[in-house]
Amino acid sequence: MNPHLAIRFKTIMFRLCVFLTLFLVLWLFTKYNLRRSSIFQEDFLSISASFPPSKSIPTIARVLYLFLCENQAEINAYRSVLPSITGDVMFFCWKKNCFNTNFSTPSSIYTATWSGASSKYQPLVRINPAPNYILTHPRVFIINELQLNLSRKTTWTTARNLLYQSALAEELRQGWRWAYFNFADGDIQFVCPFAQKFLNANQTNEDGFIIARHFRSLVNIQPFPNNRTNSNLCFILMDAFLLSVSPAIGVVAGMMIPIVFDGLVAEIVYHVDAMFNAFHRDALDFLLPYCPRYDAHSWWKSQAILIYRSLCLYGHAIQFNAIQISARKHRPYPRQGNPWVIDQDMNLVPSSLISLQKYMKTKRLVSAIVLRHYSGWSLGVTGDECRDHHTDVDPVTTPNKSLQMWFKSEQKIKRPPYINRDHGFCGSCPRDKMVSNAWQLTDLVANISPTRPFLVNIGAASAGGGQYDPTYPLLTATNLSFSALLIDSNTSPSLFSAYPNRSNIKIIHDFVWSESIVKNIFERYNVSTHFTILKLDIDSYECSVLESILRASYRPELIHTEFNPIFPPPIIFMPIYNATTKNDWKPPLWSNINPFYGCSLSALSKVLKSFNYVLLEVDFWDVIYIQHEIALLSQIQVPANDHIAYQHGFLEQTCLFYCRGNAKLYNKQIENAIKAAWNQSNLTTSLKDVIDLFAPISLKTDYKHPYIISS
């Protein structure tokens, strides 16, 4: 053989061996990681199996439009416009029931995970799968007020809050977050005079280059059908602006704010009209929910209060002049008095911004912004004073009243101590250490005084024939009027024998799952949408079950449930429920040997806050929530935040010392991981490796149980 050919052949074979070796190593590494990581199931809503699921719930490059509409005609105006390849839409229909017929829905598409720090040159969407892209399906949601059976008519404030609650609940269901919530009136029309300029590379100036680049790619990746109007380009252009510029608040021109000079792409504003507001997902806690305190006299004030709160986002409310509102037709609504005058107890603005708040009452300052030098808004650029201040602010209050809060244990109104025998189940706690001074449900019910007391007890089986259940005292002979549904899959008579045997107490043996709880229990047994107490003890998917019940418009006055105390506030831990795999896990979540179960306190509070509940009491692993309005009217004292309640109600429990061997209350590995990562930016990543050690394994696929972990 020619020596040169021999050398060349050896070189080729060597390179081939190296390539095959690298490929084998990569294949083994990938397989190992797929088996050891918690993953989202392939059929879980809108999530590609390629996404690493044990990370915290991701934000993706997608916008949710939330419209208030009066009737089907207003909704129909958007059916050839939304949803789009970058935007979903949720309508709240006021006067008549509306339907999502004849909407032109784009094909499913892969959408990039997103943050304001994402590369400005990363494509927002792709046709084919790729790492860090999630398969999404453009969707339309419609909420009909007439179908909610509300006790009172909504206002634009309370209707927007219902949209907000529904959107947050949908995020938990789908497993990812929208990048922006864009609230808008359904009776406005848009024009986008710059759209063609942005599509023409020769007419795009430097300030609009990044926006134009994304806009062109979105237009080209999925051409619009002929029946789509120019308005569709407006919405795609708006999404390109939001996702490339990343303002805290994005608005459009035509809302009574002057444009500084012709041809200016964007400008900073300090006054935003409610008819079209896009809020960065991470800015929502600074701005929402809307405050309905003054709605009886003026719907304007809720927006004025939002503007005051937005001052913590100073310099990051940006008006996009390439899109303009061309027409609006508002129906009459209450607008009495000066909208800028609010009660002092609202305390919505930190002291350093009070002077700016006063200025806002009379001025609408605007200034030009050079977008190519603007790096976008994020939580990191917002001062500690604003972040700390807004942690505990909740503007959803009734006139002249505010929540009665305690901030330290010594400020908490002392209640008569009693022996809570339930504490003894955690371990070898002596009886004299089972002392509690937490609210008992009997006292709370007496304080609320319901006219027709009714209990739904999910997980009613208990030692002593039910005597250890926290709701048992409500049903004894002295409370003959208390009706109840007692639900548990356990059929042993010994676990129910102590409950009173009377006609208004019904025991049901059934399994409770998120997808069937409403139909199989609440609808089958004609549970009223408003009842006294919901008690939930299933040691598995509490957050998912609660969300299903509340999303179906059921509103108990009190919610008594259990939480996973291994994850302290502000850590959000939550197993992800999937109806198709609910029985596939070993060990099951409700076993007594594993710290992987239930929701953390902050996870519960996040879910329930979106439905207007506040934390009332933590008593070891038990927790009680109360409707916000009832807490106000009754002036029941509540803890200022989750941290304080957890410290007093769990960490200071005298039984805790004796219960450290209980795997559902204490885990040394997780505790050490939390301490080690507490002040690090990658806290959730550090916790993931430890949590994966305890995540149940699928009996069918060997995958670990998916979960959400964030802080």
Describe the protein's architecture and organization.
Keywords: Membrane, Transmembrane, Transmembrane helix. The chain crosses the membrane at residues 12-30. The protein folds into two domains: 59-380; 406-710. The chain is built from 18 helices and 28 strands. Helices cover 27% and strands 20% of the residues. With 711 residues, it is α/β, with parallel strands linked by helices. Strand 1 (59-69), helix 2 (72-76) and strand 2 (87-93) form a beta-alpha-beta unit.
SSE topology:
Layout: H1 3-36, E1 59-69, H2 72-76, E2 87-93, E3 109-112, E4 125-126, E5 133-136, E6 140-144, H3 156-174, E7 177-185, E8 188-191, H4 195-199, H5 209-221, H6 230-245, E9 249-253, E10 266-269, E11 276-280, H7 284-287, H8 300-309, E12 317-328, H9 354-360, E13 366-368, H10 384-391, E14 404-406, E15 418-419, E16 435-436, H11 441-448, E17 454-458, E18 483-487, E19 505-508, H12 517-523, E20 530-536, H13 542-551, E21 555-562, E22 572-575, E23 585-586, H14 601-609, E24 613-619, E25 622-627, H15 628-634, E26 637-639, H16 642-651, H17 668-677, H18 683-691, E27 697-698, E28 707-710
Parallel strand pairs: 1-2, 1-7, 2-6, 9-12, 14-26, 17-18, 17-20, 18-19, 20-21
Antiparallel strand pairs: 3-4, 3-5, 7-11, 8-12, 9-11, 10-12, 10-13, 15-16, 21-25, 22-28, 23-27, 24-25
Helix pairs in contact: 5-6, 13-14, 17-18
Transmembrane segments: 12-30
Keywords: Membrane, Transmembrane, Transmembrane helix
